[in-house]
Amino acid sequence: MALPVVAILGRPNVGKSTFVNRLCRSREAIVHDQPGVTRDRSYQEAYWRDHHFKVVDTGGLVFADDSEFLPEIREQAQLALEEAAAAVLVVDGQHGLTAADESIAEWLRFQKVPVLVAVNKCESPQQGLSMAAEFWTLGLGEPFAISAIHGAGTGELLDHLVTLLPPAPEEEGEEPIQMAIIGRPNVGKSSLLNAICGERRAIVSATRGTTRDTIDTTLEREDRVWKLLDTAGIRRRGSVEYGPEFFGVNRSLKAIDRSDVCVLVIDALDGVTEQDQRLAGLIEEGGRACVVVVNKWDAVEKDSHTLHQMEKDLRSRLYFLDWAPMLFTSALTGQRVQGIFPLAAAAVEQHRRRVSTSVVNEVLQEALRWRSPPATRAGRQGRLYYGTQVASKPPSFTLFVNDPKLFGDTYRRYVERQLREGLGFEGTPIRLFWRGKQQRDAERDQARHGVEHR
Ligand code: GDP
Ligand code: GDP
Fold this sequence. Notes:
Distance between the termini: 44 Å
Low-confidence stretches: 26-40, 200-214, 231-248, 450-454
Radius of gyration: 26 Å
Mean pLDDT: 80
Largest sheet: 6 strands, mixed
Number of domains: 3
Oligomer: single chain
Helix content: 25-40%
Bound molecules: guanosine-5'-diphosphate
CATH class of the largest domain: Alpha Beta
Order of helices and strands: EHEEHEHEHEHEHEEHEHEHEHHEEHEH
Structural class: alpha/beta
Strand order of the largest sheet: 2-3-1-4-5-6
């Protein structure tokens, strides 16, 4: 099903791309400082609550003399609107109502698409609402006071916006969960696949590299449909010669890309090798959910301490997957093999999860209370203003701070740990973006426009 499209319109420099940046997971959209820089229409994906939609920034609607809505520009905007389920007209609250805003609004009133007015640059809580009130006269309903830079008001706007979109398709769960079985040759991937499926789908062989091709297998477990993306035994690229095997490696890397969740298979007899670490790195970098499966458990000589000690040792070499659950299996006896599914399902759920801004900030406040951000010798203190989840798959958070440079690795890791402790996210990587730029922008704007900020 095609995603609904939301068109963002407005005259140049009102903050459209800043707004789009805030909505969308990728931070590609570039903020221009010169008024009137036109851009090609570009689509980006956005998520809000259960809604998934595309945002198209129409670029600045440029005017001949700041009021005349040129026909060719109108045509461009018309094209963008034709496919849109809703539109957001962005205006500049600090600058106030302009003739250009009025002519865009006048035109929009005759379009079939529902429109919301976003009055941007309203970061001042006292003045914001009165700044926004001025835009009632556009005749497009209640104007929303927002600050694209700080995020204030955008949640409320989005809550309204998604009510204008066609309902989200029921349950992402109806889509099969794509699961990639990843691991270096001979760890037991195809044996596991056989044990899982209960039939000889893949040929098991003690010789390396017999399973060359990726085979997708669909099955049902845990009331879900799963697609297992079998891999051809990923080998280190360097040790591979260009032959059929090379393409196998490529396809395995693609399997990581295609997957929702990766099952990283480790050989219990070998422990975590360098190749395993490399694969783990690819999974983490790819932002995939992950379950670590330690296979050939039957072949390990055990005493009562083994499992605990072994997990500790393995984890110390897989520290960048410390969020991933670990399961000890035997493809040979079938022990715990079906246990992969509940763990993978939980990991996928966490991978897709969204947390409200208020909950994120409760956790951040708590973290700040326990440990203040570092200060420089000169006495400059790091300040963390607030954070918000900007994307899922994997869950990604933007943290707004005075200056990211004041936050060293130790403190960043601390905040990440606190977020995990407070919010969970077991089985999925999370991303934190430390942003301080808006602060400088606001200061620059203040200098430029002489407008007072708090
Ligand atoms: P566009 O041309 O409409 O896409 O506008 P941009 O997103 O490029 O933003 C234009 C200028 O407005 C940039 O200098 C931004 O930093 C600034 N800006 C954007 N959003 C806000 C906001 O919420 N508050 C303030 N004070 N400035 C903003
Ligand atoms: P792949 O290359 O990762 O697909 O590994 P295979 O599934 O082909 O297994 C490689 C070798 O390990 C074969 O000789 C299997 O019989 C053996 N093997 C796989 N799983 C287990 C297990 O759980 N226990 C034991 N003891 N051997 C296993």
